[in-house]
Amino acid sequence: GAGVSQSPRYKVAKRGQDVALRCDPISGHVSLFWYQQALGQGPEFLTYFQNEAQLDKSGLPSDRFFAERPEGSVSTLKIQRTQQEDSAVYLCASSLAGRGLGDQPQHFGDGTRLSIL
Amino acid sequence: GQNIDQPTEMTATEGAIVQINCTYQTSGFNGLFWYQQHAGEAPTFLSYNVLDGLEEKGRFSSFLSRSKGYSYLLLKELQMKDSASYLCAVSRPGNTGKLIFGQGTTLQVKP
Predict the structure, then answer these.
(1) Virtual CA dihedral for B15, B37, A25, A36, nearest 10 degrees?
(2) Would the CB atoms of A59 and B95 count as touching at under 8 Å?
(3) Nearest-CA distance from B16 to chain A in Å?
(4) Among residues B78, B81, B79, B53, which one has the least CA distance to residue B66?
(5) What is the model's pLDDT at position A99?
(6) B44's torsion region: left (phi>0), alpha (psi -120 to 50) or beta?
(7) A3 to chain B: which residues are within 8 Å by CB?
(8) Cβ contact, residue pair A106, B101, below 8 Å
(9) How high is the pLDDT of residue A102?
(10) What is the tens place of the pLDDT at every residue in B1-58?
(11) A106: which chain B residues are within 8 Å (Cβ-Cβ)?
């Protein structure tokens, strides 16, 4: 498809389990972002990739969160030993621009709604 | 710290005009984005302002005053489908393009 695709759309896990969330960005987009969105709040930045390089991971809440984009296209956000406070919608966004090339609109996927029981 | 403020909720009538305000205090400022988000869906890009003034795009317009740290989104000829959350987001220089979002304004359009 033409847009950003995320899977799964919904994920339910028990506390302590590991989860992996996938993002397929728009083809050719250099930049990829992960955001976390709590109910009734705006998205909060987690991490940023330019191609395969993770240039900013300042928003990751703890070392249980890990993201990768090994071939500069698909990205995976992994959460280990999940906790109830990890319940949120995880949004992926991509844009054409690389670092230093000015603002470009970010195109978002529909997100993965994660519920930790 | 970074602070972006928007009203939590607004209600307006179909066919009317509504203005959604956003004020920001950030360490550095590059530009300001507005996104629309329907419940359970992806945020979609509406507008981007980097210079002071009004940007018009069909029924939607966005205004920016850098000196006042203030922006607004103006929606004209409201339609029921405009019921959604409207997100204000700031980008800062040298920060990889990541966005700092406000909490969003939920707009309800009534017949």
Answers:
(1) 170
(2) no
(3) 25
(4) B53
(5) 56
(6) beta
(7) 42
(8) no
(9) 64
(10) 689 999 999 999 999 999 999 999 988 899 999 999 999 999 999 999 999 999 999 9
(11) 33, 45, 97, 99
